[in-house]
Design goal:
Layout lengths: L1 H12 L3 H6 L5 E10 L2 E9 L4 H8 L4 E11 L7 E15 L4 E6 L2 E5 L2 H9 E7 L10 E9 L6 H9 L10 E6 L2
Parallel strand pairs: 1-9
Antiparallel strand pairs: 1-2, 2-7, 3-4, 3-8, 4-5, 5-6, 8-9
Amino acid sequence: MRVLLTFFTLTILLPSPTRVWAGSNPPRIVDVHGSIRGNEARVRFTLQNAFPPEMVEALKSGIEITFKTTVKVERVYGVWFNQTVGEVLYSRSVRFDALSRVYRLHRDDGDEILPDVHAALDRMTRFEVDVPLSGEIERGKPYRARVRARLDKVGLSEPLRSIVFFSSLWDVETGWARGNLANP
């Protein structure tokens, strides 16, 4: 009940979402890089500007925040007609546990308990994802990773989903970011 009351209050008192993003940079993915070893690519990247102050306050009040990230690995042939050789949908969520006063981070590859909001935000924005690759990987040829992230509104509780539908503060989605992969 406290979570819902906090969220309703924040929704009413918040400035217009266009002003929220206009005063700061929109969310984006930066520093996409990685390497290919055998039939697996390890892709690293950072999600920037995904947590405006209002979302951080919602996180502190116990609302679970989940990001779903799509990572694609492509064999680059030129400007067009690149071939996707691997793709992963990666999910990561964080929630404040008021009883134990810690943040619980859930990732596809395991869970983690974090002591404070700064550690939680850091773990939610720095990624290292393993992408299984299909087909023959050509050594020395160019490969690249494409990455995008979005806030998962489906994971929110029903009352929050109804409100979030009308609030574009919670419309966090990045464009596709690209980065080259080392292929020895």
